[in-house]
Amino acid sequence: MNTQGPIALLGGLEHLEGCESIDRRMMSEVGSSRPNVVVVPAASSRRLMAATAVLARNYWRRLGASVTVGVPGDGFEDRLAAAVGEADLIVLTGGHPNKLFARLGASPLLDQMIHRWEAGAGIIGSSAGAMCLFEHRLNLYPPNPLKRIAGLGVLNGFTAAPHFDRFRAERWAPWVARNVLRSSIIGLDEGTALVGRDGRFRVEGRRNVTIVRPGDLQVFPTGSEVPVRFGPAPATPEPIPLLRPVPVRAAAR
Fold first, then answer.
1. Structure confidence at residue 199 (pLDDT)
2. Residue 211, CA atoms < 13 Å, CB-side half-sphere
């Protein structure tokens, strides 16, 4: 029986005003008004990690959650092990995807996070966190920007493109999907998330989620249902018809 918990893929600006509807939806999905939330700022630089931790802690406390923030360092995995084992929601914050991948890739902590998700806990991935959740991600740095490289492999079938609106990615994402990835992209606007489970997802937050398939681009505003499915298999998403997409011109900025 599939008991995987809910997923939220957020386009960035996590733990800021305007994201409350996203995270309250996740609290509802896991069935708790006071969930145990474990925040893993593994994508943060050491210079910004303390600020990221404080922002996350204060934000979740305002929502009524019990929150633990695990800061990477000596004993990082050991300190988080017990907390993740009891988590209702696990949050991977934004920052540098390469740092997140280096700290969590093939680690016992990642295995434990996946185990907890498979037992029903929710996972929230924002920006770098959303990118790294998939089997593949786009490289952002020289010498090979936009090359397809490995992610953590929790999810499959798509590549996440956060900050989609800021970078006007609708201009280049179709070319990348067709010529580089040869697979589909989920474009996540800032402060906007795709939230759900079991092929039933909804757009929550400020703006739009864009599904880019080779040769096709469809825009879904807040409140839209988007029936996508994620892995772990098959590696290519099922060809599920999308519901009433907003024409691209309606998303022009």
1. 86
2. 26
7-251, what's its fold? Rossmann fold (3.40.50)
3-state helix, strand, coil in the chain (%, to 5): 30, 25, 45
**Upstream peptide bond of 108 is cis (omega within 30 degrees of 0):** no
pLDDT digit string (tens) for 32-55? 989 999 999 999 988 898 899 999
Terminal Cα distance for the chain, rounded? 44
Per DSSP, helices labelled H in 75-127 are 76-85, 97-104, 108-118
Sheet containing strand 122-126, strands side by side: 66-69, 36-40, 89-92, 122-126, 7-10, 192-197, 200-205, 225-226
- Grouping H, G, I as helix, E, B as strand and the rest as coil, residue 198 is coil
Kindly state the tokens that stand for 155: 């999810």
Which of 75, 105, 91 is CA-nearest to residue 19?
Answer: 91
Reported as a single tens digit per residue, the pLDDT across 103-143 is 898 888 899 999 999 999 999 999 999 999 999 999 988 88
Cα–Cα nearest to 17, from 64, 68, 63: 63
* 55-92 core/surface letters (b: 16 or more CB in 10 A; e: else): bbbebbeebebebbbbbbeeebbeebeebbeebbbbbb
Q: 54 — phi, psi (to 5°)? A: -65, -45
Distance CA 38, CA 86 (A): 9
DSSP label of 199: T
Nearest-angstrom CA–CA distance, 46 and 61: 23
pLDDT average, residue stretch 179-199: 92
pTM above 0.85, yes or no: yes
* Mean pLDDT calculated for residue range 71-80: 66
